[in-house]
């Protein structure tokens, strides 16, 4: 699915705003160790600061990680600007990646707060959800369009 550049930009801004507002709420109301059941025995809100990536990968090297993620975001931005009608997967991936990068720049960590307690999993945020939605759209697009990236 492709959207106009204008609609795509508005959707990116909306997704980043929703994520940033949810993280603001988590920083204000869940610190330092407050847990709030959202769906009992299934999902809770629990504040966490993640200096790494998924599952705290590279947490001991936050500067290197921030530089790498900044480069990736620049690549996503150039891809977005190049496309007349950006694909939906790009919109979700860019919004999630950019919003988490904003956290890194302003706070030195990414604010996580969604904790699925029905299984042993990582605490995450809405930007992470957007990234995964974008990845799922990309995989589905690749499978159903039959246009997998070509190797050179």
Would you write up a description of this structure?
The structure is a single chain. The model has no long low-confidence stretch (mean pLDDT 86). The chain is α+β, with helices and mostly antiparallel strands and 152 residues long. It has one domain. α2 packs antiparallel against α3 and α3 runs antiparallel to α4. A three-stranded antiparallel β-sheet has the order 1-2-3. 57% of the residues lie in helices and 13% in strands. β1 and β2 form a beta hairpin. It is globular, with a radius of gyration of 16 Å. It contains four helices and three strands.
Distance between the termini: 26 Å
- Tell me the number of structural domains: 1
Task: Please state roughly what percent of the residues sit in beta strands, choosing from under 5%, 5-15%, 15-25%, 25-35%, 35-45% or over 45%.
Answer: 5-15%
Unreliable runs, pLDDT <50, ≥5 residues? none
N-to-C order of helices and strands: HEEHHEH
Shape: globular
Q: Could you describe the largest sheet, including whether it forms a barrel?
A: 3 strands, antiparallel
How many helices does DSSP assign? 4
* Rounded Rg: 16 Å
Strand order of the largest sheet: 1-2-3
The number of distinct β-strands equals: 3
**Fraction of residues in helix:** 55-70%
Content-based structural category? alpha+beta
Query: What's the rounded overall pLDDT mean?
Result: 86
């Amino acid at each position: 699915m492709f959207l106009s550049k204008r609609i795509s930009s508005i959707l990116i801004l909306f997704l980043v705003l929703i994520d940033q507002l949810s993280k603001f709420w988590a920083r204000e109301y869940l610190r330092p160790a407050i847990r709030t059941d959202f769906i009992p025995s299934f999902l809770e809100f629990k504040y966490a600061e993640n200096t790494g990536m998924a599952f705290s990968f590279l947490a001991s090297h936050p500067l290197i990680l921030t530089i790498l993620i900044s480069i990736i975001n620049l690549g996503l931005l150039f891809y977005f600007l190049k496309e007349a009608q950006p694909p939906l997967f790009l919109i979700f991936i860019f919004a999630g990646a950019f919003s988490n990068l904003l956290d890194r720049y302003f706070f030195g960590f990414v604010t996580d707060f969604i904790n699925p307690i029905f299984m042993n999993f990582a605490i995450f945020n809405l930007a992470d959800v957007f990234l995964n939605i974008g990845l799922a759209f990309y995989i589905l697009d690749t499978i159903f369009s039959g246009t997998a990236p070509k190797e050179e």
